[in-house]
């Protein structure tokens, strides 16, 4: 692992410690920072699966954790969960496919960001084409986060969100965080 610097209140080393405390034993999965590109590696020689996030980017860590939370047991046996990914420079058709599968992880990232007290930004992840997130994509992310608020979250999401709240926003409970009023569409 590359050293990850402590730069502010929202330090990636804290995220690593929180995640690993929640899941190193129960899910045999570690969060690892300092990677040039994000990647998920299933259990290998280390005996643990690893979620690698980009450099020391707090948002990258939250986003990669969100993907891990979405992936089911079978997907977590595959490198990068076996998902299709086209790098920056996608066509309009590829971008539409990207947006169709990214709404759920980005909704979880928004939930995690709110729990940590950091601003969430919807990402179209296609800078070369100068395509920001479409209004339809923003609406889809918003709809998914509202679903989380009304339908509840999985056990893994609840555990990590509670750990974030305990560290960054101890005045809030998970139930208090899962209020639709906290997730205004206008903030996207």
TrEMBL record:
It comes from the Bacteria. Keywords: Elongation factor, Protein biosynthesis. It holds the Pfam family EpmC. This is Elongation factor P hydroxylase. GO terms for molecular function: translation elongation factor activity.
């Amino acid at each position: 692992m590359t050293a990850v610097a402590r730069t502010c209140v929202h330090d990636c080393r804290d995220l690593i410690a929180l995640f690993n405390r929640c899941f190193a034993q129960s899910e045999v999965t570690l969060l690892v920072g300092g990677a040039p590109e994000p990647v998920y590696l299933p259990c290998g020689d280390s005996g643990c699966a690893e979620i690698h996030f980009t450099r020391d980017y707090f948002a990258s860590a939250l986003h990669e954790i969100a993907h891990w939370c979405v992936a089911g047991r079978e997907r977590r046996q595959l490198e990068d969960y076996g998902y299709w990914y086209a790098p920056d420079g996608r066509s309009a058709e590829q971008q539409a496919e990207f947006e169709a599968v990214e709404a759920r992880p980005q909704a979880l990232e928004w939930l995690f960001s709110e729990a940590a007290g950091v601003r969430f930004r919807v990402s179209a992840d296609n800078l070369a084409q100068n395509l920001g997130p479409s209004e339809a994509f923003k609406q889809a992310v918003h709809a998914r986060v509202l679903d989380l608020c009304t339908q509840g979250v999985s056990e893994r999401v609840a555990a990590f969100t509670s750990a974030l709240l305990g560290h960054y926003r101890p005045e809030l409970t998970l139930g208090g965080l899962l209020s639709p009023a906290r997730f205004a569409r206008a903030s996207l």
